[in-house]
């Protein structure tokens, strides 16, 4: 299951990075879920013998990830059904799937039952969680947003993936424990508490009261964890979106781990700013308080591999269309250009998660955006990000692509600054990446540069119209300098990417 994030399983050629693991969708419509083949679907589709339901059946955009990867709308063959059941699903989903009729399944009823099986009735008339966690509980996320984003946070294995990133968890621990003065006797709000770990840190740093808000049924696990660690008298876990909960008092500190790939993916910062505007006292602090975005030129074999994969996919299409003509008398050549465009978008125009080593960098990074989380507005976040950059080239050679990453700073507020500033960085690191890794944007063709040149241009980041939690990136760039490479590659190029 993906961390978040808007997996559209109806789009059968989109690839995704899930904390370094890819969810791949088969061209014909079968799915490889977390590296696991749904063998029944795959073999049936490849053989061309499956009913239409098996080829185009995965219900997109309405279900939690595990259910979405398992439920077939109509006409499922028994082999496909068995393979899907073998996937790792919540028991409620598994039982539900086994009971599906062969045809005419009521997918809306399936969706509701499956969502309920993972502990959150997002479709209920009152919008409340099925199990009340606190008298302060708010409403559940809207059903499509829950399916596209929130649902995966309801699984403990996903919380584990984030917690065992010790650069991440350790930075938050240090930011809290080395700044106990900012927490002692204070009221704290944890936005998106997940397992409750940051709320527990705040309580152990001496907070008088911690409100831990979680939109998913993970709130029930967080409450159990808080009680087990003897902090129920300080930490109150609240289930619901922070936009809909009500607190009985203002807070001194808001803490949240809201960052997504390339900082902005997931758009969770919106919720933190809503909480800031609704609940933070004047002079209160945000943890983290500042964020920065970077871009750097890099060398990588990834660009060559992706181009080879694209070419291989096109060769596979050519063989496929030939087989369709030979075996079935159907000429599918009229779709050649559409297929090429689809594959080009996936292989060459989609950013990728990577663990980049500092030795791969060809020049200095450009910090092209800085956010002060105490002052940035929701309107500024929603508007397209446009920023100029300059990356000085320190080493000659082809630039295979750009690497994007971020860092956040824990500095408190002007009225209540931290005693010890802590930095959490996702920059290329010889000891290995955080779970965010870096985002790589490959260039096709590569960009020739010489030491002393500079790559200059403008980057634009906008939210996707179909799903505001995903991003579209455009990089306009050219090489400047006195070298022959700059003279050759000095024209402006436009490269476009999806961050899925």
From TrEMBL:
Pfam families the UniProt entry points to: Methyltransf_25 (PF13649), PRMT_C (PF22528)
InterPro entries named among the record's database cross-references: Arg_MeTrfase (IPR025799), Methyltransf_25 (IPR041698), PRMT_dom (IPR055135), SAM-dependent_MTases_sf (IPR029063)
GO CC annotation, single: nucleus
Keywords for the protein's UniProt record, in alphabetical order: Methyltransferase, S-adenosyl-L-methionine, Transferase
Superkingdom per UniProt: Eukaryota
Residue runs in coiled coils: none
Any one of the GO BP annotations: methylation
Ranges for domain Methyltransferase: 188-284
Record flagged with keyword S-adenosyl-L-methionine: yes
Entry protein name: Uncharacterized protein
The organism of origin for this protein: Elliptochloris bilobata
């Amino acid at each position: 299951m993906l961390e978040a994030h808007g997996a559209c399983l109806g789009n059968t050629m989109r690839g995704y990075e899930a904390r370094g693991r890819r969810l791949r969708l088969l061209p014909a419509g079968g799915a490889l879920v977390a590296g696991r083949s749904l063998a029944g679907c795959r073999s049936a589709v490849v053989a061309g013998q499956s009913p239409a339901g098996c080829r185009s059946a995965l219900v997109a955009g309405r279900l939690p990830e595990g259910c979405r990867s398992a439920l077939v709308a109509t006409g499922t063959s028994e082999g496909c059904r068995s393979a899907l059941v073998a996937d790792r699903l919540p028991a409620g989903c598994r039982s539900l799937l086994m009971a599906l009729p062969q045809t005419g399944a009521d997918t809306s009823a399936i969706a509701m039952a499956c969502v309920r099986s993972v502990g959150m009735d997002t479709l209920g008339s009152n919008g409340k969680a099925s199990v009340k966690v606190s008298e302060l509980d708010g409403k559940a996320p809207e059903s499509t947003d829950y399916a596209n984003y929130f649902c995966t946070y309801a699984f403990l294995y996903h919380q584990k993936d984030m917690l065992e990133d010790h650069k991440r968890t350790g930075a938050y621990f240090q930011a809290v424990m080395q700044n106990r003065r900012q927490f002692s006797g204070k009221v704290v709000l944890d936005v998106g508490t997940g397992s409750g770990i940051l709320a527990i840190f705040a309580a152990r740093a001496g907070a008088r009261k911690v409100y831990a808000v979680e939109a998913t049924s993970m709130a029930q696990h967080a409450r159990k964890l808080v009680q087990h660690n003897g902090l129920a008298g300080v930490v109150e876990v609240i289930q619901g979106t922070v936009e809909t909960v009500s607190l009985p008092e203002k807070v001194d500190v808001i803490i949240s781990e809201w960052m997504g790939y390339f900082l902005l993916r997931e758009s969770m910062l919106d919720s933190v700013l809503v909480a800031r505007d609704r609940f933070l006292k004047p002079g209160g602090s945000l943890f983290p308080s500042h964020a920065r975005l970077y871009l750097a030129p890099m060398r990588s074999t990834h660009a060559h591999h992706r181009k080879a994969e694209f070419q291989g996919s096109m060769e596979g299409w050519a063989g496929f269309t030939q087989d369709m003509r030979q075996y079935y008398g159907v000429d599918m050549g009229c779709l050649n250009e559409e297929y090429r465009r689809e594959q080009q978008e996936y292989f060459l125009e989609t950013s990728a998660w990577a663990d980049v080593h500092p030795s791969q960098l060809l020049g200095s990074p450009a910090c092209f955006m800085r956010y002060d989380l105490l002052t940035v507005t929701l309107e500024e976040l929603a508007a397209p990000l446009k920023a100029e950059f300059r990356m000085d080239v320190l080493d000659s050679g082809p630039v295979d692509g750009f690497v994007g990453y971020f860092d956040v700073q824990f500095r408190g507020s002007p009225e209540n600054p931290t005693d010890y500033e802590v930095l959490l960085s996702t920059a290329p690191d010889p000891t290995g990446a955080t779970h965010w890794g870096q985002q790589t944007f490959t260039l096709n063709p590569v960009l020739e540069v010489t030491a002393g040149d500079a790559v200059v241009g403008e980057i634009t980041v906008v939210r996707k119209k179909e799903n505001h939690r995903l991003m579209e990136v455009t990089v306009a760039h050219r090489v400047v300098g006195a070298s022959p490479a700059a003279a050759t590659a000095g024209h402006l190029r436009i490269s476009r990417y999806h961050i899925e």
